[in-house]
Amino acid sequence: MNRLSRRQILAAGALAPWLPAARASDFPSRPVTLILPFAPGGVADVTARTVGQAMAPLLGQPVVIDNRPGAGGIVATQAVLGAPPDGHTLLLMSNATAVSVHLVRKLPFDVQRQLLPITTLGFFELGLAVPANSRQGTLKELLAHARSQPGRLTIGTIAVGSTQHLSAELFKARTGIDALVVPYKGSPAVINALRTGEIDVAFEILSPLLPQLKAGTIRLLAVTGTQRFASLPEVPTVIEQGVADYSVDSWNALAAPAGTPAAAIERLRAAATQALAQPAVVERLRELGVKARASQPAEQAKLLADEIQHWGRVVRAARIEPE
């Protein structure tokens, strides 16, 4: 074996600090896979595809969407955690990520320790909808009706533990009404039940409600954000109508496995931030009821921590047992 000369060793040492930077500049070296814990076609899926398509030319590589629904997000999360932590495999997080901490008795991972935040993509509130022929024209009228007939008001949502379901439980707690929350298999079933009068009110994200609102088959009494939704300026918030300390936002964000190089995280964050600033992306998300919003990793980490605490209180108050 040939010995290295002192000059060769010194030369190698001089080059060493530049090697990580050179590797970082080559990222990504192949397509980036974004794994979603949701089926195709929903708000999260379309959001991911819209932002991913805009990120691709900025990264110089395609962003491939891989839908892996199932087990409350566990399937998708484990797929990401099992991938090399090099920035080429990402997870689409949501507030369901925070809720799962309280709904799964033995979660096989620690989302705060094993996932690195990159950036949020967007936030979207829910709508409180009633049938078009409902006698209640405002939220105050709905609450008065509910209080006059305890236990009679029916609130439709999707599955137990979903943002919609927990938002309804939080609404009951904040208003003090006695109402029956009825979970359905999906948004189409909830909307159909609302249109036919099977339920009195529905808590649902805005995207599936907007076509029904335009068709005149439902009415929106409120939105759950802290501010009115720009596309529906005539619809007041729940807070505006006297329900203090009530706001709910769903959100989506990007995360990578722990151990992913900081340079890769920053490259992905910068590309997503630039994509979210593009007018076409902002408009497409707005059509879905989503407010495009990027963040720093630290902001996203705080959001997740706050959401875990918040939804934990709601789950316990609603006496939902983990499975």
UniProtKB/TrEMBL annotation:
<keyword id="KW-0732">Signal</keyword>
<dbReference type="InterPro" id="IPR005064">
    <property type="entry name" value="BUG"/>
</dbReference>
<dbReference type="Pfam" id="PF03401">
    <property type="entry name" value="TctC"/>
</dbReference>
<dbReference type="InterPro" id="IPR042100">
    <property type="entry name" value="Bug_dom1"/>
</dbReference>
<feature type="signal peptide">
    <location>
        <begin position="1"/>
        <end position="24"/>
    </location>
</feature>
<protein>
    <recommendedName>
        <fullName>Tripartite tricarboxylate transporter substrate binding protein</fullName>
    </recommendedName>
</protein>
<comment type="similarity">
    <text>Belongs to the UPF0065 (bug) family.</text>
</comment>
